[in-house]
Specification:
Number of strands: 21
Number of helices: 16
Helix content: 25-40%
Shape: globular
Strand content: 15-25%
Structural class: alpha+beta
Length: 457
């Protein structure tokens, strides 16, 4: 691929990208323009789907690779691509469709920041039932990473809520999935194929827009929090809450570690966390600094009277100094890892979550901070970036061995370069055959984020 680009000349590629995107929106890549540690050569910011299609056609003509980027909050997640010739920034593929105020769905440009969508919908008394932890994330980035927050317990992920999807394939052809009105005139395909783009990190297509369900804002939100001391106690409490039919919107767990579990946070590290796009607006949980108990928090939503009644029942059920608040705990919708850590996502049946947490602790030889959806068995954990790659590999092997027998998995979301190169990021996902078929169909020449998908696809 490099030979084709060299024969044409880097300046010629830049000139053509500038013609497509406009003078301010095409340039040589800078030091910060990288994907999981792999540097790009050019950055293009097309002004709409047609311009994005032209960028992809240019890449196809000159045998260049393309990796989409949204706000960059999760650009270091997943495997590093084999090459990044053109980084296609989706920031101008933004905006909301003009549905009636009472419409149950809305079409959203992939480059639209999710908080901007929620702000616009809030003015009409509505919301997307989505709350991913990444501050500033775009809708396309949330879909591409299959990111979800606490509300996934009741409403599922953004991918579960899709009504329609539009994307560009590797040849720049617009493809529509779902209802004809959501496809926007693009040749329609099954929505199941479209959902394969969720979690694909740009390896199957460039997302243009998504049509999602919207709902009325809940009149009342209440958080019932209860201290917990062991993963087994969490298991018993979650089972009791689910059996009580209290209709929780979310059941979240925070198991911090004490200050001596790994190492204290240096001031420079705290500053790096604050400045990194994936951690902007977050702060270290005070409970972690104290080495105090963990917390199980349950979110209840609905009308004032019935939420109050359910909260009273829940407090009576869980006991143990449970408290009720009208605002979320400080750690709510926050990952337990920081830039430079090895970030893990563990997925396991909820009845085996305690076994997964114990396996992490035993393999690491110390408590590991864990946070996430205890009501679904999907949590995140952090290993310090100072751990040698071989040590991380040994921890992963031990944990995955335990999870394999329990139909669970452990994925490395992000890691220092040495760790990323030495370990298997994905484990053994069962979806590889489906992804391989989708890759062959949508990107047979492997121009879109090659190597980002499981199995090196």
């Amino acid at each position: 691929m490099a030979a084709a680009a060299s024969s044409t000349g880097a300046m010629e590629i830049t000139r053509k990208l500038t013609e497509i995107c406009g003078p301010p929106f095409a340039r040589f890549a800078g030091a910060a323009d990288e994907v999981a540690g792999r540097s790009a050569r050019w950055v293009a910011v097309p002004g709409g789907p047609a311009a994005a299609a032209e960028v992809l056609r240019l890449a196809a003509r000159h045998d260049l690779t393309v990796v989409p980027r949204g706000a960059g909050t999760k650009i270091d997640w997943g495997a590093a691509p084999a090459r990044v010739d053109i980084m296609l920034d989706t920031g101008r593929l933004a905006g909301l469709g003009h549905q009636p105020t009472r419409s149950p769905v809305t079409e959203i440009g992939a480059g639209t920041p999710l908080r901007a969508v929620q702000s616009a919908l809030e003015r009409t008394g509505r919301r997307l039932p989505l709350d991913p932890p990444s501050p500033g994330a775009t809708l396309g980035g949330v879909l591409a990473a299959d990111e979800a927050g606490p509300l996934r317990l009741r409403h599922g992920t953004a991918c579960d809520q899709l009504v329609g999807l539009r994307w560009l394939d590797a040849d720049g052809e617009l493809v529509g999935a779902g209802a004809a009105e959501a496809a926007g005139g693009a040749p329609p395909v099954g929505l199941e194929l479209g959902r394969l783009l969720c979690g694909s990190q740009g390896g199957l297509g460039v997302l243009v827009s998504a049509t999602l369900r919207v709902q009325a804002l809940p009149a009342t939100r209440v958080w019932v929090s209860r201290p917990v001391w062991t993963p087994l106690e969490v298991h018993d409490l979650v089972r009791a809450v689910l059996a009580a039919r209290l209709d929780p919107a979310a059941i979240e767990l925070d198991l911090p570690t004490g200050p001596r579990a790994w190492r204290p946070m240096h001031p420079s590290r705290a500053a790096a966390m604050a400045n990194h796009p994936s951690a902007a607006g977050r702060r270290r949980d005070p409970a972690a600094a104290r080495g105090g108990a963990g917390t199980l928090a349950v979110l209840l939503e609905g009308g004032p009277a019935e939420v109050t009644e359910r909260a009273e029942r829940l407090v009576a059920l869980v006991g143990g100094d449970a408290t009720v608040a009208h605002s979320a705990p400080d750690w709510w919708r926050r990952y337990p890892f920081a830039p430079g850590d090895t970030a893990l996502r563990v997925e396991v049946p909820i009845g085996d979550l305690h076994a997964a947490v114990y396996a992490l602790r035993d393999a690491a030889g110390a408590p590991v901070p864990v946070r996430g959806s205890a009501g679904l068995g999907v949590v995140h954990a952090a290993l310090p970036g100072s751990l040698p790659a071989e040590r991380v590999g040994a921890i992963l092997a031990a944990v995955r061995g335990v999870l394999l027998a329990r139909r669970g998995r452990c994925v490395v979301l992000s890691a220092p370069p040495a760790v990323r190169q030495a370990v298997d990021v994905w484990g053994e996902p069962a979806v590889i055959p489906r992804l391989r078929a989708a890759k062959e169909h949508l990107d047979p020449h492997r121009r879109l984020a090659p190597g980002r998908l499981p199995g090196g696809l």
